[in-house]
């Protein structure tokens, strides 16, 4: 006979068990991950690696420089001519481009003029997804305010015209400075040399960009016409008419392999000798291939003896806490090395401070999403480009020597790029600089970001689980938990749509140019608040109604969905611009984890709740975008020069440059801040995550009450009377005629526990069936039933036994035989 098999519940998979464990311990995991994320961010200068050249074909410094002193002297003469025209001529804006074109033709190159006008302010909030404008460009030179770029091209004797290297020298054609004239002299010296060499395999384009309307505007206008078709090209496509050797049409070369922007600073501050600053950040945190920076740094240091630097935040150099961290990690490194000489951890404290200031500058510039130089226009077309800013320390009599050193450096970089058979691809495109010779790769700095945002999905899951279990009496909650989640998700979606509308409000405020920045900022904040109020009134779903405050489960669900939305927004932003996502996580994650209604903390009145409430107020204040910007600016520079309208100017610069950071602030950070701040202020002061009495607890209480009232008839009558009153309150005086739907609503109003729509019932275990589905009881089950059968008195033996008078004798014989 078969026996009843035990029902074994399937064991969940290990990944599910790990997830449930992390969710159940979300508080501890959140604290550990946040601390580890901040420590990992502070350890990035220690984890930085030395730069190296990945592409073997570059071979920097493998050939001797060909730029001679005569070429440098010609460049010096060229500089003197520019300065003389600038000081003597009234129409220098026309004569200087003509003089540059004349020298290009004399050196054997092709030349053409490129006229452009600065583009008007146009709002394209999603331009960073699609890139620069494409299509037909219409020429419009009706205005007298236009710039003139002079473009010279040297065709490569060993090339096929499919690739080109760009040299850019921005200058003001109306009133050029000595530094701008020196940068033109460097480019002219290199250009004349390259027009004579035989090893050139890529075309050389020299762009003398007219920067009267801005350096970036001049380069961007030329690139836009280079990659698109203009009406002038259609007119001069077949017959390229030439006047004095200058082409009337738009001259083009091959695909751009790399671009170098050459600038000369007015003074050499902070350098002990001739210095070089490298600017690499482009729009939305894009960076050129690291190999391009590596060859410039190698040739500048080992070839020309220049002192190379990247930008840093100088105010952090005097930070005592940063120097203390440097000394601490240096001490830990020494202890680790004493334990095991193979453990190489820790760097000198001074190097740590230098690395932190450079890393902070790199993070800040990438997070802004604004190019740090004209090279940013090239990165929009996926061309690797950097800006080289030279800082000379010489007298006017040593200009030839300066032109010689800088020209040889540019020649060496061009020679290395000329060796490439394909585009830069071997080295990193995602990295952070801690010095000109040290970098942090994407595989290292993403660890800090991942640790910071790791608690968000765990906290969201834990909050949703608690909200589905806790329902306070009196709450008006739909019966379906899934509907609860969708209802809250709709609320969060409406607030994020409000953020999308807030994004375009500054465009309309820009139509009033006479308003001051402070008035524009206050108008933007006021209009956003009014719009949020009307959005709440129209939707009737936002959680800050004055009539009914948030209940426990509603607030918990709202926080869960908001945390999930913040997690998704930060992850998406990390793909577009890591630096923005990292800084946003530092501001948003603590607020998501710490947000608790202030009324709860005020009701408890303990030291823990008071401290938590103070932290919530501080995080809400710091998380507000204007407050965060002004506090960071004051901490980095000085609070004396901080003004409220600085935030509006900063927002305007982000919007005009189509920075993804502006989209993140308005559509991710601000909606999450509003939801968390309003939930903290508007939530009702009831105990969070309170356990509702289960059915067993209720039955136990009723049983205890009946036992207490059993010995006194008055207590029994009082208990019965109370139950009758409760029945009248639940079902009224209609009795059984009350519809079941009304009964369910009354039970829900009294107990706060809705009747479930469906009940899961487990069918009995069937061992064997026979005939018409009748169930055959097994021997084991029969014995169990017999053992639980109550005793009865036998009429024959007059004893309490399990048999009756018919089998009394047989049972006694069995007992005797045993």
TrEMBL record:
<keyword id="KW-1133">Transmembrane helix</keyword>
<protein>
    <recommendedName>
        <fullName>Glycosylphosphatidylinositol transamidase</fullName>
    </recommendedName>
</protein>
<feature type="transmembrane region" description="Helical">
    <location>
        <begin position="583"/>
        <end position="602"/>
    </location>
</feature>
<keyword id="KW-0812">Transmembrane</keyword>
<dbReference type="Pfam" id="PF04114">
    <property type="entry name" value="Gaa1"/>
</dbReference>
<feature type="transmembrane region" description="Helical">
    <location>
        <begin position="556"/>
        <end position="577"/>
    </location>
</feature>
<dbReference type="InterPro" id="IPR007246">
    <property type="entry name" value="Gaa1"/>
</dbReference>
<feature type="transmembrane region" description="Helical">
    <location>
        <begin position="485"/>
        <end position="509"/>
    </location>
</feature>
<feature type="transmembrane region" description="Helical">
    <location>
        <begin position="515"/>
        <end position="535"/>
    </location>
</feature>
<feature type="transmembrane region" description="Helical">
    <location>
        <begin position="442"/>
        <end position="464"/>
    </location>
</feature>
<feature type="transmembrane region" description="Helical">
    <location>
        <begin position="614"/>
        <end position="632"/>
    </location>
</feature>
<feature type="transmembrane region" description="Helical">
    <location>
        <begin position="20"/>
        <end position="44"/>
    </location>
</feature>
<dbReference type="GO" id="GO:0016255">
    <property type="term" value="P:attachment of GPI anchor to protein"/>
</dbReference>
<dbReference type="GO" id="GO:0042765">
    <property type="term" value="C:GPI-anchor transamidase complex"/>
</dbReference>
<keyword id="KW-0472">Membrane</keyword>
<feature type="transmembrane region" description="Helical">
    <location>
        <begin position="662"/>
        <end position="689"/>
    </location>
</feature>
């Amino acid at each position: 006979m078969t026996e009843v098999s035990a029902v074994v519940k399937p064991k969940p998979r290990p990944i599910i068990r790990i997830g449930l464990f992390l969710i159940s311990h979300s508080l501890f995991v959140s604290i550990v991950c946040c601390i580890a994320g901040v420590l990992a961010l502070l350890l990035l200068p220690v984890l930085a690696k030395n730069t190296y050249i990945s592409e073997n074909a570059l071979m920097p410094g493998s050939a001797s420089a060909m730029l001679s002193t005569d070429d440098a002297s010609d460049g010096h003469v060229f500089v003197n001519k520019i300065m003389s025209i600038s000081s003597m001529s009234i129409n220098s804006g026309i004569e200087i481009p003509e003089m540059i074109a004349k020298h290009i033709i004399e050196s054997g190159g092709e030349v053409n003029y490129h006229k452009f006008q600065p583009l008007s302010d146009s709002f394209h909030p999603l331009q960073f997804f699609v890139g620069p404008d494409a299509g037909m460009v219409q020429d419009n030179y009706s205005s007298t305010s236009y710039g003139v770029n002079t473009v010279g091209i040297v065709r490569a004797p060993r090339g096929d015209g499919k690739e080109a290297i760009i040299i850019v020298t921005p200058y003001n054609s109306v009133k050029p400075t000595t530094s701008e004239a020196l940068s033109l002299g460097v480019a002219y010296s290199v250009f004349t040399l390259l027009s004579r060499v035989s090893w050139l395999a890529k075309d050389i384009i020299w762009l003398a960009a007219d920067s009267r309307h801005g350096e970036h505007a001049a380069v961007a206008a030329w690139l836009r016409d280079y990659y698109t078709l203009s009406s002038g090209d259609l007119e001069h496509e077949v017959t390229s008419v030439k006047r004095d050797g200058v082409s009337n049409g738009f001259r083009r070369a091959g695909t751009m392999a790399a671009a170098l922007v050459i600038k000369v600073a007015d003074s050499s501050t902070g350098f002990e000798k001739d210095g070089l600053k490298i600017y690499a950040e482009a729009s939305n945190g894009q960076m050129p291939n690291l190999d391009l920076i590596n060859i410039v740094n190698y040739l500048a240091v080992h070839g020309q003896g220049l002192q190379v630097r990247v930008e840093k935040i100088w105010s952090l150099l005097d930070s005592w806490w940063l120097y203390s961290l440097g000394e601490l990690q240096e001490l830990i490194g020494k202890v680790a090395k004493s334990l095991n000489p193979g453990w190489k951890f820790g760097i000198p404290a001074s190097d740590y401070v230098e690395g932190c200031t450079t890393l902070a500058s790199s993070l800040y510039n990438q997070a802004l999403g604004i190019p740090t130089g004209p090279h940013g226009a090239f990165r929009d077309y996926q061309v690797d480009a950097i800006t080289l800013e030279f800082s000379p320390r010489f007298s006017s009599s040593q200009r030839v020597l300066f032109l010689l050193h800088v020209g040889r450096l540019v020649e060496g970089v061009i020679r290395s790029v000329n060796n490439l058979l394909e585009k830069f691809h071997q080295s990193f495109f995602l990295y952070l600089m801690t010095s000109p010779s040290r970098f942090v790769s994407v595989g290292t700095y993403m660890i800090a970001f991942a640790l910071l945002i790791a608690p968000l999905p765990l906290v969201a899951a834990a909050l949703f689980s608690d909200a589905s279990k806790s329902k306070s009496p009196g709450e008006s909650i739909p019966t379906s938990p899934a509907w609860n989640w969708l209802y809250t998700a709709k609320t969060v979606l409406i607030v994020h749509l409000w953020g999308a509308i807030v994004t375009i409000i500054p465009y309309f405020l820009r139509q009033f140019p006479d308003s001051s920045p402070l008035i524009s900022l206050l108008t933007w904040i006021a209009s956003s608040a009014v719009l949020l109020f009307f959005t709440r009134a129209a939707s009737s779903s936002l959680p800050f109604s004055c009539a009914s405050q948030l209940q426990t489960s509603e607030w918990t669900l709202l926080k869960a969905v908001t945390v999930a939305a913040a997690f998704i927004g930060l992850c998406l932003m990390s793909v577009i611009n890591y630096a923005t996502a990292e800084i946003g996580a530092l501001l948003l994650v603590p607020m998501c984890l710490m947000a608790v209604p202030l009324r709860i903390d005020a009701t408890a009145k303990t030291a823990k709740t008071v401290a938590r409430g103070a932290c919530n107020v501080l995080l809400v204040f710091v998380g507000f975008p204007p407050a965060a910007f002004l506090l960071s600016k004051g901490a980095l520079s000085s609070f004396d020069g901080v003004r409220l309208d600085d935030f509006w100017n900063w927002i305007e610069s982000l919007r005009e440059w189509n920075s993804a950071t502006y989209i993140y602030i308005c559509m991710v950070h601000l909606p999450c801040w509003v939801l968390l701040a309003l939930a903290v202020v508007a939530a009702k002061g009831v105990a969070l995550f309170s356990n509702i009495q289960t059915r067993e607890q209720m039955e136990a209480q009723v049983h205890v009450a009946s036992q207490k009232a059993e010995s006194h008839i008055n207590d029994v009558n009082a208990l019965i009377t109370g139950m009758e009153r409760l029945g009248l309150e639940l079902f009224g005086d209609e009795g059984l005629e009350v519809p079941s739907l009304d009964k369910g609503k009354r039970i829900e109003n009294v107990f706060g526990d809705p009747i479930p729509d469906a009940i899961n019932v487990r069918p009995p275990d069937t061992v064997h069936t026979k005939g018409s589905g009748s169930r055959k009881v097994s021997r084991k089950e029969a014995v169990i039933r017999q053992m639980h059968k109550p005793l009865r008195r036998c009429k024959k033996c007059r004893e309490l036994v399990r048999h009756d008078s018919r089998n009394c004798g047989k049972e006694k014989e069995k007992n005797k035989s045993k």
